[in-house]
Specification:
This protein is α+β, with helices and mostly antiparallel strands and about 110 residues long. The protein has helices at about 10-30, 30-50; strands at about 60-65, 70-75, 80-85, 90-95, 100.
Amino acid sequence: MSRYSEMSKLELYSEMQKMIGEARKKHQAGFISEANILEQKYYLAKSYMMNPHEINKGGQYHVAGEHGVFHVKYLNGVFAWGRFPHSEEDEAYPIGRLEPVTCGTAKSE
C-alpha cells in the first residue's frame, strides 16, 4: 500500500470510498472500534486531498465527531493543532475533520 502523501487525487478518492464503505459494514456488524479506525483513515486520506493553506491559523472550526469549537493554533503537515475552549492541552486533528465555523453555526459550550 502506498502512503497517502504519494497517492494521486483519484487514488485518494478511491481509498476514501473504500474506507467509508468498510467502516459502515464494521459498524453494522458491531465492530465499533474497527469502524472508528477506518473512519480515522478516511479523514486522513481526505486531509491529503485538501490544501492546508485553506486552514486559517487562529480560525475556528467544528471537528467531525467532537463537540464545541476548535481554535487552530498552528499546522504541522495535514494536522491542525489547537484547543477547545474547555481544554488546557493542545490537540491535533487531521484537517479533513475540520469544518469552518460560519455565522450562526457556533455551538454553545
